[in-house]
Write a structure and sequence with these properties.
Layout (H helix, E strand, L loop, with lengths): L1 H27 L6 H27 L2 H6 L2 H58 L8
Helix pairs in contact: 1-2, 2-4
Amino acid sequence: MTVVAVLLPSAALFITYLFVLEAIKYRAGILPISRRRFRLRLAAWLLTLGLCAGVFVGLFAMSRHYMLHHPFVPLALWTTCLIAAVALIVIMYADVKEVEEGIRRRESELWRDFARALAEKEKRRQGGRGDQDKPKA
């Protein structure tokens, strides 16, 4: 249990550090993500922190008194943690879909640029030959 007591706050701090770095890069314009994706990541960060706090409270701060005399309190806590975990999964799925859409869009742009470059090269090649390719009438 001591390992969990150390790992949960450490994980929360590390996740916060990563999110702050991402927020700084987003604000500076270095991170090329949409506002929607940034908001999804903000919500995921908040849910993750809340989930870590809920698990920590449930494991270490919840006394037997609550379990014996107020059984609804632990039930509400763990139900809230479960709902937060499901919401986190849904938010991360939406973020993955945004990433996939961006990859598809970028791939489409690359193929379009490739086709345009090939067409221009072919046009230059045809234009450089002059009257050699034209049939004689």
